[in-house]
Design a protein that fits this description.
The chain is α/β, with parallel strands linked by helices. 37% of the residues lie in helices and 21% in strands. An eight-stranded parallel beta sheet has the order 2-3-1-4-11-5-10-9, with helices on both faces. The radius of gyration is 25 Å and the shape is elongated. It starts with 9 loop residues before the first strand and ends with a helix. Residues 229-393 form the Four-carbon acid sugar kinase nucleotide binding domain.
């Protein structure tokens, strides 16, 4: 893996600055941390990286060569997007072919429609307020005039890759075929959403090629959820009170870890419980202690297992760390909350975090920030096990539901 890659959720390559900003703004509005880069490598902490290649007015071969410079930035991106102009100006054919080569992706979905701005695609023809783009002012653009209204003809000027025109309803079947360029009609935002839905669940995500309309649809799909995944390993009395109070609130699901399962390495059932809770829009609190009295049974458990207190704690923490990592691999809650120093470090280790960037404080004794250098780039909140009041976890839930949704 490239040294400067931070496993970003989204990487967008745009060919001018205003297009780059248009591509990123909807992701930012929906809770993502978005950065627009003028040059690379870019090592900043960001959910979505938008790179301005400034290549719209270049000749096609130069534009393709410039995109090759971004190979390290797109490596391991969960979503790769080529932002193009909704009226097909620039070098879409050359740049799409270049990105397919660089990324190793088999297919590109090309959907230039931007319905909110009156730009639609019907029968593979780019329309501006119902008129073919070649009959509008864009045909005489002083820098990058548009010579064809048919998307396929625009692409064919710069690439020999085969293309086919499909509707959103036909897209799923086309993704099973061998045609590398899939031009998809769209007249509404709902049809753009349908395009994103068609590619979201596949094993291999194609290159997305579109204007701000398709970027907006992707942002709607990736909108930051409002659920909290809380992992609490502390057995302190105040931690148990916090769990109890949170569990009394509607929309909170509790997952109790059986210590015997820790030693049997049985994790699948807990992952299913977590997945079910998050998928239902609930907060999920994972904990290892039933009540404040359980801490007095530690010596008995240690004697049964032939372990010291420290070894028992390390085993439980390591289990919770791996459980958290696997849960985050399949679901993306609004934030992660870890209580107990050993558990917090075990989670960080399981995620291969290189550090922690502090952003502020959610509640008393609850700093929040982000792990550095790992795939999980959502907000992280930490709390020492014995700190806070019985309402601390409730305050965190309030922060997730109210302030993070603003």
């Amino acid at each position: 893996m490239k040294e400067n890659n931070l496993n970003r959720e989204v990487v967008v390559i745009a060919d001018d600055l205003t297009g780059a900003n248009d591509a990123g703004v909807s992701l930012a509005i929906r809770g993502k941390k978005v950065s627009v880069a003028f040059r690379t490598p870019f090592t900043g902490d960001t959910d979505a990286l938008v790179i301005n290649s400034d290549s719209r007015a270049m000749v096609a071969s130069e534009a393709a060569e410039k995109l090759a410079l971004y190979a390290a930035e797109i490596d391991a991106a969960a979503w790769l997007v080529k932002k193009i102009d909704s009226t097909l100006r620039g070098n879409p054919g050359a740049e799409v072919e270049a990105l397919l080569t660089i990324s190793g992706k088999r297919q590109a979905i090309i959907a230039p429609a931007f319905p909110a701005a009156g730009r639609t695609t019907q029968g593979g023809v780019c329309l501006v307020k119902g008129i073919p783009v070649t009959e509008t002012e864009f045909a005489s653009d002083p820098k990058t005039p548009v010579r064809h209204a048919q998307v396929a003809k625009v692409l064919a000027e710069q690439t020999a890759l085969n293309s086919v025109v499909v509707t959103p309803a036909q897209l799923a079947a086309a993704l099973q075929g061998d045609t590398p360029l899939l031009i998809v009609d769209a007249r509404t935002d709902a049809e753009l959403d349908q395009i994103i839905d068609a590619v979201s669940d596949g094993d291999e995500r194609p290159l997305l090629v579109g204007s701000a309309g398709l970027c907006d649809a992707l942002a709607r799909r990736l909108a930051r959820p409002r659920q909290l995944l809380a992992v609490i390993g502390s057995m302190s009395e105040i931690a148990q009170q916090q769990i109890q109070r949170a569990g009394e609130v509607a929309g909170v699901s509790r997952v109790l870890i059986d210590i015997d399962d820790v030693f049997r390495h049985e994790m699948a059932g807990y992952l299913q419980q977590i997945a079910t809770a998050l998928a239902a829009g609930q907060h999920c609190v994972v904990h290892t202690c039933t009540d404040g009295q359980a801490r007095h049974q530690i010596d008995s458990v240690c004697q049964q297992r032939g372990l010291s207190r420290a070894a028992l704690g390390e085993t439980i923490s390591a289990f919770l760390g791996v459980l958290t990592r696997k849960a985050l691999e399949s679901h993306t809650p609004a934030a992660l909350y870890v209580s107990g120093g050993d558990v917090a470090m075990a989670v960080a280790s399981a995620l291969d975090a290189q550090g922690f960037a502090i952003s502020g404080q959610v509640a008393q004794c609850v700093p929040f920030g982000r792990f550095l250098g790992c795939r999980w780039q959502g907000p992280v909140m930490t709390k020492a096990g014995g700190f806070g009041t019985e309402t601390t976890l409730l305050e965190v839930l309030h922060f997730i539901e109210e302030k993070m949704s603003d």
